[in-house]
């Protein structure tokens, strides 16, 4: 008998919509903060990875593309991606890129730098996003700068997830996802504290 679908089984639609809406209006990038704070809040409050296991729309999207649409080779994830040194190293790198984005936003807010209406992929390749930039003209420059930077982070992580989905198992991204690594660390610290 097929398991009945719950409301959270359709959160992949939210992930897909986020990418599409940000493509046409960069200010939608701010909604990505929900995917940043909710997993941390769930891990802190409940002490588990319920967000990763149940509510992560991105993981669901990769599952859908990889399994149902058969876009995944479904090969085992390389051992090094599961290693602690890689996962925490990638988290540190990702946080460094995030802090750099926040610093750039601060410089624009302080008037020390001008707005850079650019989306970068893999922190290197500039994408032609000028059609989405018109939405940034109606807001304070630092608000737009944060949107461009945050959308770049979200797009980069999605592309990395799509690459590993295609090469390995559908949810390979979940093995080294920075949010997953952070929530796991929070859960471990919480359980250690409870055990004392």
Automatic annotation (TrEMBL):
Residues 28-71, 158-191 form the 4Fe-4S ferredoxin-type domain. InterPro entries: 4Fe4S_Fe-S-bd. The chain crosses the membrane at residues 12-45, 85-109, 148-168. Signal peptide: none annotated. The keyword Transmembrane helix applies. Keywords: Membrane, Transmembrane, Transmembrane helix. Pfam families: Fer4_5. The keyword Phosphoprotein does not apply. It comes from the Bacteria. This is 4Fe-4S ferredoxin-type domain-containing protein. The lineage of its organism: Bacteria, Bacillati, Bacillota, Clostridia, Eubacteriales.
